[in-house]
Structures are given as C-alpha cells and as structure tokens.
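Please predict the structure of the following assembly.
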Amino acid sequence: MRRLSLPALRLVSALLLVALWWAAAAMADDRALPGPPAVLAALRSELAAGALLPALLATLARVAAAFVLAMGLGSALGYAMGRNGIADAALDPWVLLLLNIPALVIILLAYIWFGQTEAAAIGAVALAKLPNVVVVVREGARALDPALDEVATAYRLTPWMRLREVVLPQLGPFLAAAARSGLAILWKIVLVVELLGRPSGVGFEMNMRFQLFDVPGLLAYSLAFAAVMLAIEGFVMQPVERRARAWRGAAA
Amino acid sequence: MPPLELSIRRKLYRRAGAVPVEAVRDLALDFPVGSVTALFGPSGCGKTTALRILMGLDPDFEGEVRHRPPRLGVVFQEPRLLPWRSLGENLRIVARAAGLPEPPVEALLSRVGLAGWAARYPRELSLGMARRAALARALAVEPELLVLDEPFVSLDETTAVQLRALVGAVLAERRITAVLVTHALEDAAALADRIAVLTPRPARLQRLVTVPRGDLAGLRAALAG
C-alpha cells in the first residue's frame, strides 16, 4: 500500500507545483512570468527551429567532460589523501582554498588567464567541483577497512585486484555520493560558464533570451536541460548506485 | 623447499606521546614442512603480532622471516570474507591471485560443510559458517602454509568442536605446514604436533613441546614437567 502511494504522492506534488505556477502566471504580468502553455510553445518553437538540441548536446558534452575530469582527478587525490598522511598534510591547504573560492571567481580567472576557450571553460568547471569530490572520497578512503586490506596482502592480490575487489566496493557509496551531488552542481556551473564566455550551449542561449527579455524562451531552455539532468539522475546515476549497493540486499 | 624461519629480535608498538610497547622479544622459530605448530600463550602476549609478522602483514620489526612460501592460506580471527562477493567468488578471487586456474569451488565448500552455498553472500552466514567459508577460501589457494589465528574463539562449544574436528581432518588429509595461534590448550593439543609456549608480553619462546596430535594428557604432562 505504502509503495503504491509514494509515487502517487510524488505525482500529486509535481502537479501541484505546475498548478501553482499556472495560477501565479495568471495573476502576474505575462511577460515576466509566462504560464506553462507559453513555455511549452517556446520549447516547441526552439525544437522546430533546430536550436534546442544542439544547445543541449553542447552543454551535455561540457558537463560530461568536466564531470569525468573532476571525478577522475578528485577521486585519485581524495584516495591518496585519505590513505597517506603526508599527501593529506601537503594538499589539504589547497583543497581548503579551492573549497572557499566561489565558482564564479574560478571561471572569471580562467577566462582572463587562458582566454575564452573550451579548455578554460571545462577546466574551470572541473576545478570548481574538484575539492568537493576530494573531500568526499578522502572520507571514504579513511573509512577503508584495514582488516580487508590485510586479506588482500596475505593473499597477494595484485594492485588491480586490490582496487577492484577490496577498495572500490568500499569507496562505492562515497563515489556515488560525490558523483550525484557533483552532477547536480556541475551542470549549473556549466550554464554560468556558457553564459559568460561560450558561443554555444544552453547557458549561451539563456543569455540570448535574457538580452531579448524572452522569458518563455529562457524558461524553455532551463526546464529542458533540467529535464535532461533529471533523466540522467533517474536512469543512469540511481541504477548504477543501486547496482553498487546490491550486495547489501542479500537476504539474511 | 627449506623450512620457514621466523626470527624476531624485537617488535615495538609506537604511539605518539606514549612509551613504546614491546610486543615480542627474541622469538626464533622454524616450521618444518608438514608440521603443525601452535603458538600458545596467554591472551595479549603477542601471539597474533608474531603471526602477522610471519605472514608479512607487519614489516615494522627487527628481525627477519626467511623462506616464506608464496601461497599462504589464512583463517583470521574474524572471517574477513569480502561481503560484496558471493562465497564462490571469494574463493575464485584468491585462487586467481595465487595464479591458479578455476578452483573446485563446490568441492571445497562441500568439504567444509557448505555444499550448495557458492552463490550466497557472507552476510547470510553465521559466524561458524563464515569461519568454515574462510577455511575453504584458505584451501582454494592450495596453500603451502596455512595460518589459523584463534579460529575457534567466539563460537559456541558445539560449533567450536565441529570446526576443530574439521580443521583437524583437513590438516590430516593434506600435508600442509600450518601455524595455529591459540590460548586454549585443547585446541593446541587437538591440532598441533609442536607447541611453542610463549611468555606473557613481550612474547618470548618459553619452550617448544613436541607431542603427538590429540594427546592432551601428554601435552599437560609435558608442560607440567
């Protein structure tokens, strides 16, 4: 009964949100807050004009590149810092500094120092996300069970086997948390990067709509990309995380 | 192959701001091929420390371990199975690491009384069953040295007796050099043919007693004499 009612509750909640939006739009200035039909019309129009899909793909590509960079480098650094006191002491001030610099500052500095290039944009986004990944994975590395480490040593597991069979399953929940929170933040930073200095992508298109005071278009792009990210979260991230945790569900 | 030799001049546990604790001092033992040696001593005397050094898990000591065989099977105090892998996979992983082909998983699990459990996960097992599975994993590497660290602690009497009988049978049917750490005289007598009696901390070799396996009365007499 409870299982059936929870999805229904979600649906009702989402419908309520749309209804509130609709009601607010009906009361407000139509140019400042268009209702759902106007935004849907803008979405259809952008799709028909062939502008929406390339923008979505360009942004997705940037999100993917920055995500891979931040997760790859952040995981390696976090693991090293969690396992090695010297690495932790040496790199911790860097991580703290990066954690406390706003993403906007990193983006602006990257554009000033390296020009408004694709590499600078992706690098800035990855760098803005990097310290969060480092901190989460470092906690995971600190929590690794030394008893299982000894099993790996006693049975002479190769470094690759040790990583695959002993380390990664323990780091899994931490990597999943870093990835999910990372993705949620990262795509918003990518929009800012595009808005400030890229000639393509959802952020660029949103800037154009902002300049033209085209609120339906602005909302159409933002909602379309949010929908894409929600789909990735629901159809990719959550199933991967469920799979990684599947062994915990073995019946006792 | 020459026998495994353990020689620990000193093992200290250092902690920042605290006086170092000496766990082992002047402990020298060899382990003839096919022998079963029990490291016997009171709780906390340094037996497990000596065993960890023997296995190569603790390189921070003064002394040396010579002729350590490449294939080591271990039954730790806690079973330490990989919880995210099925029992069958737990066996296959260590066999692969030892460079062996596909191990006879079903036969090994059957040997320890876990026939049909290959697809099950460690969390589905009781402690006694998990210890059996850990023994099967140790056997999966076709060990040249089998190490048993207090394998019967925390078990109820019936389970401990059954597991002791199983380990005894396995040791009897395979000529594996084995080292057993225990503080229970019954375990040492039942399984070992050489009993290295260690002093309270720091562990030193008090005496090495050789008695036929299973001769508890003989062991008691030898220790009293």
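Chain A has a mean pLDDT of 90. The longest helix of chain A spans residues 159-197.
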